[in-house]
Amino acid sequence: MMKNLPFFWPTKTLILDDDSFFLEELKEILDKNPQYIFFTNPKEAIAYLDKQTFQMNWYIKNPVATKIEESHYDINYDLIPSVISNDQRFNLVSNVIVDYHMPTMSGVEFCQQIKSNKFLRKTLLTSSIVLSEAIENLNSQTINSFVDKKTISKKDFLKNYIMEQEVDYFSNVTSLIAESILIENPEHPFLSKEYNNIISNIISDYKIQQYYLVNKSGTYLMIDSNNVRYNVFLLSSDEIEEMELEAKDNNLDKAIYLTLKTKNKAICFYDRNNASNWPDFSQWENHLHPVKNFAIGGNKYYYSIVKQVEN
To answer: Which of 27, 81, 193, 219 gives the lowest tally of CB atoms within 10 Å of its CB?
Structure first.
C-alpha cells in the first residue's frame, strides 16, 4: 500500500497517437471523460503543455520554496489555501501516454522535447519497440514506463494505469513535504502504515476525490465527489491531555474537560486564516468532536472526521 500523499486531485492525462481510429477507441474506453485529452499531432501536444498556467512545483520556488537550514525544510503551509482556490489545478497534466511510432516525430523524440518537466510522467505506447531501446530510455529518464498497445486497450487496465501514474506524479512532486515531516519527526504518525490505512479507508468510504495536507500536524482537507468538504484531524494523547489542562486552568465548563479527560472527544479546529492550533476558549464547546484511537507501537493516537459547515 502506498504511503499517504500530502496532495491529490484529479489531473489531466494527455494521449498522443497519430492513429485517430485508435484514439476514438480509447475515448470510448475512458467514457469520453474531459479529464483525458487527445492529440494526433505532436507539435500541437507540445504547444498545449507549454501553455499550462499551473505548475505543481509551486512549493519549490520562492517564496513558497522551503529554505534548507540545518537540514530542516520550512514548508509554508499558509500558501496551500491559494492552491486549493485555484481552479487551474484541474488543468494540470500529470502524465502523457505517447505512441512510439509516429511519422513526423517519434514517441521518444516527443518525450525528449518535454523532458524539462521532470515531474511529468511519460509512458511510451509500443507494439514493436526493441527492449534494449526501451530500457535505455528508462535509464536516461526520457520515459518512465512503456506499455504494449494491446494491453492498454483494455478498459480496466487503462483507467487503473492512469490512476497509478497520477499517484506517482503526486508522490514525486510532493516528496519535499513528506521529507520535511520526516526530518522534523521521524516517528510522526503521518508516516505510519496505521495512519495510512485510516486515510485510505476514509478516501474510499467517503468517495474522496481531492485531499490536501493543510498543516504539519497531519490535518487534511478532503473534498468528495459532491464537493462536500471534511477535515481529518490527527492528534496525540499528549495534545488532548494538554487541552484538558487548558480547559481546567481557564475555568471552562466541567463537562468540557471531563470529555477531554476520557479522550472521547477533542478540540478539532482548523482555520486557514488563523495559525493558532486552538480556537478561542469561548468557542471550545463548538469544536469538541468525537475521536477514534489507534496505536502505533506502544503509543496511542486519535483522529476525527469533521464535516465543514457552510457559512
So the answer is: 193
